[in-house]
Design goal:
single chain; Rossmann fold; 2 domains; eight-stranded mixed sheet; six-stranded parallel sheet; 16 strands; about 40% helix
Amino acid sequence: MNIVVTGLQSWDSDIGSNCIDISRELAKNHNVLYVNYPLDRMTVYRNSRHPKIKQRMAVLKSKAPDLVKVEENLWVFTPPILLESISRIAIPFLFDFINTHNNVKYANAIKTAIDKLNFNDFILLNDNDIYRTLHFKKLLNPRLYIYYLRDYMIETAYYKYHGQRIEHILIKNADAIFTNSLFLEKYAQTINNVCFFTGQGCDTHLYDPESITSVPEDIIQIPYPIIGYTGALRTLRLDIPLLETIASKRPNWSFVFIGTEDESFSKSALHFMPNVHFLGSRDAHLLPTYVSSFDVAINPQIVNKTTLGNYPRKIDEYLSMGKPVVATRTEAMEMFSDYVFLADNCETFIQGIDYALQHNTPAQIQARKEYAQTHTWEKVVKTMIQIIQNNFKIY
């Protein structure tokens, strides 16, 4: 099959990406065109000196190729276009007018890549991109339009004015909805009953404890026990007051955070605590070496509409390494209850870490690894393909 993938993350993303992992797995048996999201005027204005924006601008100015083959059966297309920045336009009819213009411009760019690759009959998989692909079913006329709903994005500030309205239209008009959590499946089914839970994947080959041969220099001097977290440090998703309280009550524990911080995190009291260590962002392939040094891995989510049904892929990464995990209890996390200590408040979060530090048996370690092996990208993509073949008779 020919499959075109659009989404919210570029191929050179610094963080883990469902979309990229799915594309790589699909490309083992199918032709895949991965489309980087296009630049918009505000992004260029704010980040013109960033190396990745400079690279995008080189494509825009025809100084770098827009279509590159990166793996067997897998191409990455960077649209040589600049879209209008519209997220702050509150007036619906004005937003819709400009968004339609952006959709047309974006679709026309993708058509050039489709034509070059002779992807005449293709499936379109849209990874949670709400605005830019709203009209793609009509503009690109794919054989099958799939909306991959893997996050509750409409609660974020970017989608404040029109996210709920536009996503409702997008879900309603899609041929099928794939979700990575049961919570999101239930949400989507209220709009479109052609909805399928496809599961969540993890790169268990990358997160293999047997492959770790060294400890990163910037963590080796940190006193044990180490309570660690990997991923973007965002106030929308993580509970800063919870972390501040735990760190102050357990000064003999070292807390290690690996990932980029938003403004609230960078200004939090955590930065003034001697037992808290912010190591900054690290390349994805290095993260397992850091996780291997954790005594306990945590996911201290704040409970809101964004996190309630969110499937944190880091949980499978932690478990794949055999690490004990303590996380905030949410609806999506209930499926991990046999392998992860789920906490409802600060006291139970501390109790969970205490217990994990004192009771971590070889049998528990092995059980965590085996459970993580049930959540691989191979299984997720196999499920997706079976749904496509069984329900839409596409082979």
